[in-house]
Design brief:
This protein is mainly β. The chain is built from one helix and three strands, in the order ββαβ. It has a three-stranded antiparallel beta sheet with strand order 2-1-3. A hairpin with a 6-residue loop joins strand 1 and strand 2. The relative contact order is 0.35. InterPro entries: Glyco_hydro_36_C, Glyco_hydro_b. It comes from Paenibacillus germinis.
Length: about 70
Amino acid sequence: MFLHSNNFANELPRIRLQGLDELTLYQVEGTEQPLSGKALMEVGIKVNLRGDFQSTIIRIQKLIDERE
């Protein structure tokens, strides 16, 4: 994620992911508890970028799916 410029530290919208399995759990770097694919697609991930030209990498790992 890269922020080119931001006016007066406005909060950015959450990033809503696509194409995930709704029932699978995913571990998002920086969060303590795993999140479901459904939550990541509907609620999204909050990104804390405030200043001009800030960037971040968010690692998301699919956890073992017990249905497989």
